[in-house]
Amino acid sequence: LAAGTFAFYCKFHPGMRGVLTVAGTGGGVEPERPTFDQPLVVPPTERGADIRLVMKRARVRSLPEGPRTSMWTFDGTYPGPTIRRRGGPGTHVTIVNHLPKGAGATSTHLHGDHHAAKDDGQPTTQLVRHGESRTYDYPLTVDGKATPGSFFWYHDHRMDRTARNNWRGLQGMFIVTDPPMAGLRLPTGSRDVPLMISERSFTAGNQLTDPFAAGPEMVHGSDGHGSMTWTGDHAPPNDATVGDTVLVNGRAAPYLGVSATRYRLRLLNSSPFSSYNLTLSDGRPILQIGTGSGLLPRAVVRSSVLLGPAQRADVIVDFSGSTGRRIVLESVPAAIGTTGADARQTAVMEFRVGAAASDPSRLPSRLPSPALVSPVPKQVSKTWTFGLHDGTHSSGHGGSAWTIDGKSFDPDRVDHRARLGTVERWRFRNTSDVTHYVHIHAEQWRTVLRDGRTPPPWEQGLEDTWRLEPGEVVEVAARFTDYTGPFMIHCHMLDHEDHGMMARFDVVR
Ligand code: C2O
Ligand code: CU
């Protein structure tokens, strides 16, 4: 058995699970730190109004030595190109599916963005087959105003295969810039670094392992070309897609040379399943200025930042006075939670601090954060219950499924209707014994209460993905603007999503 952390689960009882950690040579509790042998790569940037990304197989440098890794990519790189656009109308992204035929149809969702249902990259209705393309219209406006500066990301959202397709590499970042943010004099240029943190496991030949190979890939789904029937019968070959190697912008244990100045780091956890509780090895504070969905009202000093799948944090790290030091960004176990999704001890990347340099950046104490919906309705209009359904499916097979309100996802069933133009207050409850990360499409939300209390300062901006521990209750509010149609709410641990923990709500007139 190689060193690493392995999740195990019962195929028929997804609630029956655990995590096994095997220490590396030396056997100590503290895993050895890698030697950080390769430089961090920042993905190429796309700034145009009409962007074309070809999904294709490519060989990418993941591990420092040996063969490159064959992945499914957006445009030949993993992560795909980082799209940078100013808020306001006129961004079109065309996705062409030139993946190997066996990959089947795909769907690309821009996570965090507000756009029409037809441009949402939904799991069943907007599939792009092999050889075909689709153009997504991203107006980057909310209720007639430019989308505030944000850190979104795009990824495959194909029903039942989202974990597989993301593991294979269909992920990229999307930064919305805005003029007031530019006026802030936050670190820019090469001192504004997007970091996509994810994890994979590799074979001896440097290829991705296939956690999805253990059983029939689709016991209930499609012909691989877009037509689907859903029977609600989940028999997952894999219910916890974890890897033993953490990648940053696609590379294992990279280093980044930095000047002894302030840096803005945009942190994204794009792992299918795992969480990271990020901290700096010398105890240096992390100043969080935003979520992925805009700035916070005030910067928050944090010693660690816990990010579950799809969660983002916009942070400032000050390297001044540290010339010559090597500082490791690492994940440490989080003191909370109970599940295999929880953050473990692992190194992420290294900063090598060079000479001092002039630093025009400034850190205002108050930030121009986007307005939150107000007043918040007193009444909760919808409670979503995240749980595990035990028992026999209508298909007659025994087993369990991850559910919302006791039901597996059915793209043809409307689970809630919200009226366009109104503000709704929603409640999430977790009745299962593991943590979930709840994500909502279409709108950005105000977090109203976490367990009956005012949310912590880092949850006081706009948000689209929340940690929900067993027994926890979170309440959120948003106004439904601009678009009608079907949208999704789901757990962003992709195995849970693929295995039924997703629901549909429709915004209606
Ligand atoms: Cu990041 Cu519905 O997804
Ligand atoms: Cu979950």
From TrEMBL:
Keyword field: Membrane, Metal-binding, Oxidoreductase, Transmembrane, Transmembrane helix
UniProt domain Plastocyanin-like: residue ranges: 64-179, 400-507
Basic and acidic residues biased stretches: 110-121
Entry coiled-coil feature ranges: none
Region spans: Disordered: 104-124
Domain of life according to the entry: Bacteria
Record family assignment: Belongs to the multicopper oxidase family.
Entry protein name: Multicopper oxidase domain-containing protein
UniProt source species: Nocardioides baculatus
